[in-house]
Amino acid sequence: MAQRPNAPRPHRAATHEHTHAETATHWMGEFLEALADTSNVSAAARKASIDVSTAYQRRRHDHEFNRRWQIALCEGYDNLEMELLYRLRTGELKPVTSTKRASRTFDNATAFRLLAAHRESAARERARRDHVSAEEIRAAIDRKVDELRKRVMDAKAQREAAALAPAILPKPRDPA
């Protein structure tokens, strides 16, 4: 039986919709990229337009995705470390107020807490990637954190000493 020229054609869903695998591949790449940028699973899920539980479920059931997740987190923590080092060296510019000119601040407590919270997972991934023991990686991270902490404390001590210097110096004598 011949079909009429104006008759509606049957809808083929498979030709117009992405397969489940294609959809997963799309969000996974976007998710992992955002995870490397932010080190934040919730932010990465929002960027990939998925629910956080979808990402965690995929990680539980897909060994390759779990491996790529760990690599992205490790990259994110490497980026965080570099940003922290930059801020330790240069400080952050505090805005100008009506009574004070612009100044630099060196408050990095939140970054230290983040590094400490994810020290173990980053150490495991680096050990796996570099074929060294997790203990060696942890020791190296501990040394870096201790060095960063010492730099922050030294900078704070220098700022405090500079602030106290005018109060400690003797007043100039009147040559009368």
From TrEMBL:
Keywords: Coiled coil. Residues 138-165 form a coiled coil. It comes from the Bacteria. Residues 1-21 are annotated as: Disordered. This is Terminase. It comes from Novosphingobium fuchskuhlense.
